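User: Here's a chain of 451 residues. Predict its fold as tokens.
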Amino acid sequence: MSDVIAAAATPLAPSAIGILRVSGDGCLDVVRRVFRAKNGAEPRDLPPHRLTLGTLLDAQGREIDQTQLVVSFAPHSYTGEDTAELQCHGSPAVLAAGLRALFAAGGRQALPGEFTKRAFLNGRMDLTQAEAVADLIDADTAEAAANASAQVRGALRDKIDPIYNRLVDMMAHFHAVLDYPDEEIAPFALKSFRAQIAADRDALSALEGSFSRGQVLKNGASVALIGSPNAGKSSLLNALAGSERVIVTEIAGTTRDTVEQTVVCDGVKVRLTDTAGIRETADQIEQMGVRAAQRALENADLALYVFDGARALTEDDRLAMQAAKSARRCIAVCNKCDLALVEQSVPFERVLTVSAKTGEGIAALSKEIAAQLGGAVIPDGGVLTNARQQAAVSDARAALERLIAALDGGITPDAVLLDAEAALTALGELTGKTMREEIVARIFERFCVGK
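Assistant: Prediction complete.
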């Protein structure tokens, strides 16, 4: 039996609609005390998944809003319990009063992520699906949302469960032969499983390799803008961002510290970092800015070396160029093509010409940034997006590699299968079949209240 929890499922801010969510055994009795259906029906007698018009009452029984109620009965609900949602007008005062009424009627404030945690504990979803719910809420690109949505539907689970089940079947066959020698059970031949185990190891290795792309999908890649003072780095950031994010002046050295802006370049989330111009200077504050620029470059997945195409390269340009060439990847950007360009040569494989002022070439630069970072991830749900998942897949893959090595080395089946058990444990932690309670609690702590 679970107690009744309630929370606002929408932000407490003025909006067209605000939703109060309630779940748990007895939640419909709680709702009955705060909602009067226009047709006179009790919440328990309403058809599921259909809106019913009525009145929301406060803790004193006074009318506070015209509201619609939708009920879902266990186990056919998000949490697997009886649930109800009250759709109100999105007034923070109405939502707060409605919550107080629900608490007075016997509900309690839901903890962060408690609705989804109950869905997991009640078997409505596994742990990869639950984590994907949070990813879907936090997604800020269409690709990230699509990948998370596919995982909510079970795309990641569908890759893991067949491997898990094959290992379980193999272990069951071994123990059946061992425990029931007099039964007519086919002999256990461990080597007959080798090809499938190797294929499963390769599948896990490919999944493990998706983590770096998943990090870009979820958190964005880091791109540092490097160049001499007044090369147009800040203007370029503004052009890529589509807004005046950074102050731009004709005075060299305006940018003294790093400035970050998240943008989407051809479907790839990118964290642009505008940096101070790299040059030799006696100004202590500017020196600090130069050091910050160098740190940003060290941590960047990609550098944009920006230079002014309307003037000859200076010693400061060459200093910045040398710094940029140390990056993992680099694109040279010849800025100010709206002016008369000066013939010059820079030692980079890719040189794009743009005008941060007019926008010419910005779309092509955006595509090239995405291409250099591997392009947009195909949102099929098969990309790992957090370190917990990556560690579990890595442990399972390593266990299968040890299993294969032991099998090839002629180790007895009972010893070999210890690695199969280790792989099962790791995969179980990934999906939640064998998850420790403290890890589950930590995962749901990052959810918002009401989800």
